[in-house]
Automatic annotation (TrEMBL):
Entry keywords, A to Z: Glycosidase, Hydrolase
Limits of the Glycosyl hydrolase family 31 C-terminal domain: 592-678
Pfam entry (one): Glyco_hydro_31_2nd
Keyword Transmembrane: no
Name of the protein described by the UniProt record: Alpha-glucosidase 2
Length: 776
């Protein structure tokens, strides 16, 4: 790291080059730097980097430059301007407003360039390009997922600015309540503001959006290889509330030969919603059930909520009280709030000892072979006593299928007040090494820390197995620990559509393992909606059906034979794609590149793709154009430049324009990019059922490359080099289409042994060895 402290206006500005492309700007507040920590950025790693930076100054400016960037900072105005090496202005402060203070609040204003578009910001509703919108960073349990409602359960104060000249990213490393105004107040500038803390942000130069994501995830961390089974299909509902029901669902999947890897237990498996307990009336032989399901090839995933019931006879509560692990108010009283178990207390996950205590509580489940945990309500979501009682009446007595809709807040201030009421008071204290932090600063990372507790706890108990953790709340870096689902959507066409947008933005925020409740959570799903949603869910990196209490059944067979057939076919396609998806996760682990990709990631130089946010790429080769309107049996699909092949018919299209395609109920429009190499498996009932000795390669005309990855799918041995990485490439040599196979890394013996190469309806079986093969 190369750090300089400069005097600008009446404050100090620390400029640190983390790499030649990533620069940290950190301003003092009233002359002092109080923040010498980050909850997201791995500081130690950064301190070791050494970047060559040239520094000059004259009367008016400071000049800093690295291999990629030239920065000028005016001494009088404090205005920062960042240029690339061709002299293009990439980012500039707006007038003299690079740093503005107002009481404890801090702001920075930046110019908006002509044609600039903004993506990312974590989990958001509304349109993909956030230009002209305000995005709030305050994790909130929000059950109304209608267009533009903001914020949701997790916020990532990061975005990508796209521009034909160059893209850059900005990460605001501040965990207090904050918001971005991306040109809503004024089209000439955007600004971001936090209610407290310091102005500490990172500029990340691309020039491509993928390079921005790579730079950002270098700072905040990347995912690990997921357990292979977690790429399969997951079935959930609130709740499969008895052993009998769980067996019934499991057996139906196997009998109907619909692939499935996981069944979820929602809150009713617990005794009176006491976390880490089992209701023995409903689940008298829980241990045996876990064994039996394992034999059938299912994993059980258990919901875990952070609220611990206030109950003096309950071990988890007693131990937490004795050891002082729960959050307190400043006056020393334990903070209490209402969640599913009634009056509850909340672990202070900021403290390592409290995280250890939490992790350790998973032991008995982990020892039963359970390796999937679903962290919910961890914003943390907290009800008042009245809300809690109302909820009981609405869902248990009146058996509502969705919560009543509240009136929208009248003003921004009212909205802030409302969302802040849904959680702990901001004055609640957390502690770290004896130092006090208020909830106002920790709120946004509470879920992140809970996931850290689960992840680290799991590794202590089973050091050589990869856990699967799913979370609702999170913050920048959540991908290090968990997959993310986007909470309580609705069985509606609007929500099917909005998932396409939300998942693209969350993916662009460095979180690759993402999904939404397929079929929708609140309300009843119907035949057509379910079929369309399953079709789309195949291309969610995380693929799970889930639905709320009191709603209609939502299993693949619940909507009659036709939909069952469609679901089975589509879920089977998902299982065939697993080697492709797993290889994409390798890229996510290495570089942060997501699985579900906005067109702008694959085609950064084509402005037209900005107009087609209702399509996305699944990895580099598969263009997915979901049908998201009722009764529609065709849709327009925009194909970017190049050649494309209809997945179903093989018909070839020249890209660069939109085409109208048929989309009968059993078909989601899919187009394959020229030069595609898609590794596939045989369908199986669950991951690991078959020993997949043959890897099928679906190869399309043109030139292309794909990095194929394989390992044992469950342990951390890949970190010791026990994996294979193979570069497949295809190209034309004269009249021949050639497949080249090259091992980049060879360390795993249990992988595929043969390649079954499909090219233009021809099939060729060859040994999986290095070489060049003619395939037509
Ligand atoms: C929350 C979760 C939902 C879960 C329910 C009951 O609403 O978002 O997925 O089913 O709680 O635990």
């Amino acid at each position: 790291m190369n750090e300089m402290t400069l005097k600008v206006k009446d404050e100090l500005l620390k400029v640190s080059f983390i790499t030649p492309k990533i620069v940290n700007f950190h301003y003092s507040k009233n002359g002092v730097f109080n923040k010498d920590y980050s909850f997201c950025v791995e500081y130690q790693k950064l301190k070791n980097s050494n970047v060559e930076v040239n520094f000059k100054e004259d009367e008016k400016y400071y000049y800093l430059s690295s291999e990629y960037l030239n920065i000028a900072i005016s001494k009088e105005l404090g205005k920062v301007s960042i240029y690339d090496k061709d002299g293009n202005l990439i980012l500039s402060d707006y007038e003299d407003k690079g740093y503005v203070k107002e009481g404890s609040k801090i702001f920075t204003y930046k110019e908006i360039k002509y044609g600039e578009a903004f993506f990312g910001f974590g989990e958001r509703l509304g349109s993909l390009n956030k230009k002209g919108q305000v995005l709030i960073n305050w994790n909130t349990d929000e059950s109304n997922h209608s267009m533009n409602n903001d914020p949701l359960y997790q916020c990532h104060p990061f975005f990508i600015s796209w521009h034909p000249k160059a893209s850059y990213g900005l990460f605001f490393d501040n965990t207090f309540f904050s918001y971005f105004d991306m040109g809503r107040e004024n089209q000439s500038y955007y600004y971001f503001c936090a209610q407290d803390g310091e102005l500490d942000y990172y500029f990340i130069y691309g020039p491509s959006p993928k390079e921005v994501i790579e730079g950002y995830t270098f700072l905040v961390g990347r995912c690990h290889m997921p357990p292979l089974w977690s790429l399969g299909f997951h079935q959930s509902r609130w709740s499969y509330d008895s052993e009998k029901k769980v067996y019934e669902v499991a057996e139906k999947f196997r009998k109907r030969k619909i692939p499935c890897d996981a069944i979820y237990l929602d809150i009713d498996y617990m005794k009176g919603y006491r976390v880490f307990t089992v209701n023995r009336k409903r689940f008298p032989n829980f241990d045996k059930m876990a064994e039996d399901l394992k034999r059938l090839g299912f994993k059980i995933v258990l919901i875990i909520d952070p609220g611990v019931k206030w109950d003096k006879r309950y071990e988890v509560f007693k131990e937490g009280i004795e050891k002082d692990f729960f959050c307190k108010r400043e006056n020393g009283k334990i903070f209490t709030g209402y969640v599913w178990p009634g009056k509850s207390v909340f672990p202070d996950f900021l403290r390592e000892e409290a995280r250890d205590f939490w992790g350790e509580n998973h032991r008995k489940f982990i020892n039963l072979g359970i390796s999937g945990f679903w962290n919910d309500m961890n914003e943390p979501s907290i009800f008042s006593k009245i809300e809690y009682l109302a909820m009981k009446i609405l869902f248990h007595i009146l058996k509502l299928k969705e919560p009543p809709k509240l009136k929208s807040p009248k003003s921004f201030e009212e909205k802030i007040k409302r969302i802040k009421k849904k959680t702990m008071d901001e004055g609640v204290i957390h502690k770290l090494n004896g130092k006090i932090f208020y909830h106002s600063e920790i709120h946004n990372i509470y879920g992140l820390l809970m996931n850290k507790a689960t992840f680290e706890g799991f590794l202590k108990i089973k050091p050589n197995e990869r856990p699967f953790i799913l979370t609702r709340s999170g913050f920048s870096g959540i991908q290090k620990y968990s997959a993310v689902w986007c909470g309580d959507n609705k069985s509606s066409w609007e929500n099917l559509f909005s998932s396409i947008i939300t998942l693209q933005n969350l993916s662009m925020s460095g979180v690759p393992f993402v999904g939404e409740d397929v079929g929708g959570f609140w309300g009843d799903c119907d035949k057509e909606l379910f079929a369309r949603w399953i079709e789309l869910g195949v291309f969610y990196p995380f693929f799970r059906v889930h639905t709320a209490k009191n709603t209609k059944e939502q299993e693949p067979w619940s909507f009659g034979e036709e939909v069952e057939r469609i679901a089975k076919e589509l879920i089977s396609l998902r299982y065939r794609l697993i080697p492709y998806i797993y290889s994409l996760f390798y890229e996510a682990k290495e570089k942060g590149i997501p699985i579900l990709r906005s067109l702008i990631l694959e085609f950064p130089n084509i402005r037209e793709v900005l107009n087609h946010e209702d399509e996305f790429m699944f990895g580099p080769f598969i263009l997915v154009a979901p049908v998201y309107e009722k009764n529609h049996r065709e849709r327009n699909v925009y194909l970017p430049d190049g050649f494309w092949y209809d997945f179903y018919t093989g018909k070839r299209y020249r890209g660069g324009s939109s085409i109208k395609v048929n989309a009968p109920l059993n078909k989601i429009p899919l187009f394959i990019r020229e030069g595609a190499i898609i590794p596939m498996w045989d369908v199986q009932s669950y991951v690991g059922e078959k020993n997949q000795e043959i890897l099928t390669l679906e190869i399309y005309p043109g030139e292309g490359k794909f990095l194929y990855y394989e390992d044992d799918g469950t342990t951390w041995d890949y970190e010791k080099g026990i994996y294979n990485l193979v570069e497949f490439s295809t190209f034309k040599r004269g009249e021949q289409q050639v497949l080249s196979v090259r091992f980049v890394h060879r360390g795993y013996e249990g992988g595929a042994k043969f390649l079954n190469v499909h090219y233009c309806k021809k099939e060729k079986k060859i040994d999986f060895t290095e070489g060049e093969f003619e395939i037509n």
